[in-house]
Write a structure and sequence with these properties.
By secondary structure, this protein is of the alpha+beta class. 27% of the residues lie in helices and 36% in strands.
Length: 284
């Protein structure tokens, strides 16, 4: 009799203690509140030995890292969405790692994203495009970015441009003559231009500085991506009131460069992952 009593008391005591159970793979905890009944809540995931499933959005900084991450974590249901506006040089790529499979729903809570980041060189050249600068500022800009100046277009090696050293020489002479007054420009027989500067106190003393009409630059539009060639035209304008001369450059075909860079990113992703992972163009 005593044994039966103990069994009943143990059963009643156990019935009042919290217990765990699963619903659709989620661990739930049931708590007894006496006269107020029971409550059910999801278990604190921090107390679990390991997470129920991977989740989160991971942002990758270059195309190679995106391909590597998706390749290492792909599973059934992984799919890639490329949202691109090639004409405007824009591309955003998302890998839904736990997406839907046929008519079976996936969690869609684990993603990898990649949008190309402009390099410092690209930002500098694009930001100063068509921006008027003084002689001193133009000289400083050329000196700071001389590493990007090239004398040959890889796609058209028959055309030659001033070397980086020649552009630097021009820049240094601009700096040296910044205190002189601009007098006039002269077009040479070879198509280049020369600038004449004179001393404020002696208008007959002239200093001639040979310039160039255009030059070439080559830089990476996107972080860790390939470099592209861009042709730039040197422009100037004189203020007749004070003899000041402003310089600027105009980049030709820049939009096409970014369009091609984005197309190359899309093609690289498709080549690397497209055979085993569905790749779609669009947005969601």
């Amino acid at each position: 009799m005593e044994n039966q009593k103990n069994i009943v008391e143990s059963a009643l005591e156990a019935a009042t203690k919290p217990f765990a159970f699963e619903i659709n793979g989620q661990t739930m905890i049931a708590n007894n509140h006496g006269d107020r009944g029971w409550s059910v809540e999801q278990a604190d995931t921090k107390l679990q030995k390991e997470p129920m499933r991977p989740r989160g959005t991971y942002t990758l900084h270059d195309c190679a890292s995106f391909i590597s991450y998706v390749g290492n974590h792909r599973q059934e249901g992984t799919q890639i969405i490329i949202n691109a506006d090639f004409a405007r040089g824009r591309i955003n790529t998302t890998a839904q790692l736990d997406g839907h499979v046929g008519t079976s729903a996936g969690w869609e809570s684990w993603k990898a994203e990649f949008s190309p980041t402009k390099t410092p060189a690209a930002n500098a050249w694009v930001t100063h495009d068509k921006t008027k600068l003084s002689q001193s500022d133009m000289a400083s800009f050329f000196e700071d970015h001389a590493i990007d100046i090239v004398s040959e277009d890889p796609s058209n090696p028959q055309i030659f441009y001033p070397t980086s050293a020649a552009v630097l020489d021009f820049a240094r002479n601009l700096e040296i003559n910044k205190s002189l007054k601009f007098k006039r420009s002269v077009r040479e027989q070879d198509g280049t231009q020369s600038f004449e500067f004179c001393d404020e106190n002696d208008g007959n003393t002239a200093t001639r500085l040979k310039a160039f009409e255009k030059f070439g630059i080559q830089f990476q539009p996107h972080l860790n991506g390939p470099a592209y060639f861009v042709e730039a035209f040197l422009k100037f304008r004189m203020d007749n009131n004070n003899g000041r001369i402003d310089f600027w450059y105009e980049l030709r075909g820049l939009d096409k460069v970014y369009e091609n860079a984005c197309k190359e990113i899309a093609a690289t992703i498709e080549t690397a992952l497209g055979e085993s992972i569905p790749v779609y163009y669009g947005s969601f």
